Amino acid sequence: MSLSQDVSSEIVSNAPQTSPSLQRFERQLGGHRKLLSINDGSMIVKPCNEIERDFYELSIIHPDFAKWMPKYYGYLRLQGFNSSILESQRECINEEQTADTSRQLWGDDASEEKRKKMIRKAEITTSGSLGLAVIAFQVFKNSSDSYINYDRVYGRSLTTDTVYSGFTNFFDADIPTKLRRLVIERFIEDLELLADALRKQDVRLFSASLLFAYEGDPDALSEALNKTKQENNQKLEECSQVKDAKEKDNWERKEVEDEEDEEDEEDENYEEDDEDEDSEFEEFKATDLRFIDFAHSYFREGVGEDENSLFGLNSIVKILSRLLDEIVKCD
């Protein structure tokens, strides 16, 4: 099968312009419909409704939140279904977990029957009490060069009392304790940054999920962390040199400029440049965290922050902080 088969000509310009082959995405953890991958697996093709497609396309004007979403390449019609073409977050990372992060599991488009069903589901699962529900995950075991899969049945079996053990199992890759601690610390930091971004959005993320991923091979993880450190040190040095040059240039300009308004404008531009430089410090992917699944989500001016999703994020931070404390005590 190729993209040229039963595909509408309405393909967004960012989508692949060739006709690469599609294969079944073998490492799908959750979801109701099967995912497909393109060529080397760096992109996936995911069936979507108009609500999800609109959400991805509107995310471009919400960059602070979009950075926590998979990169969107466009959409196509494949065998009668709308499908999004998305960046795969799983190209080089072994451990993956998806978790719903809201106490409200239905969207505004849900029927009254569906709402009642989802309210009941939240009441009897961790969604209602914690604002999160582990869906499924897999863990790479370097000792056997294989994955341990924890499927949806396992995810549904977790209760308020046992969900902590689910996160413990997720971080049970064959990696040294020191690296395990660093991985968890990164996720906590990212969750807090994500929460900060979410507080600034007029958005509703009904039944959206978080995808957690980290490198579970100890050698690859060490290499990724070392590369991150080297790249960041190099960028910091380059940034320092640029700042020194700017400071010298600004000082010389101030000696010859008399207009105070012009000086204020230069200061504003300087601060904006600093923010651009900081945004370039993207780490090599030893870990990755993304919001996914937006079939019932929307941006809408005036709705304010999504308190249900923030509640779920806070619950995950508490669980990971507890797990981190246990690791530190045992170290």
TrEMBL record:
Record field: compositional bias (Polar residues):
1-22
Tell me its family.
Belongs to the inositol phosphokinase (IPK) family.
Indicate whether Amino-acid biosynthesis appears among the record's keywords.
no
What SUPFAM superfamilies does UniProt report for this protein, alphabetically? SAICAR synthase-like
EC annotation from Swiss-Prot or TrEMBL: 2.7.-.-
| Name of the protein in question | Kinase
InterPro entries cross-referenced by the UniProt entry? IPK, IPK_sf
Establish whether keyword Glycosyltransferase is in the entry.
Answer: no
Where is this chain compositionally biased, Basic and acidic residues type?
232-256
- List UniProt keywords, sorted A-Z: Kinase, Transferase
Q: Where is the composition biased (Acidic residues)?
A: 257-280
The record's annotation in Pfam families points to:
IPK
* GO MF annotation, one: inositol-1,4,5-trisphosphate 3-kinase activity
Species of provenance = Acaulospora morrowiae
- Biological process annotations from GO: inositol phosphate biosynthetic process; phosphatidylinositol phosphate biosynthetic process
The segment annotated Disordered runs over 1-23, 232-280
Which GO CC annotations does the UniProt entry carry? cytoplasm; nucleus
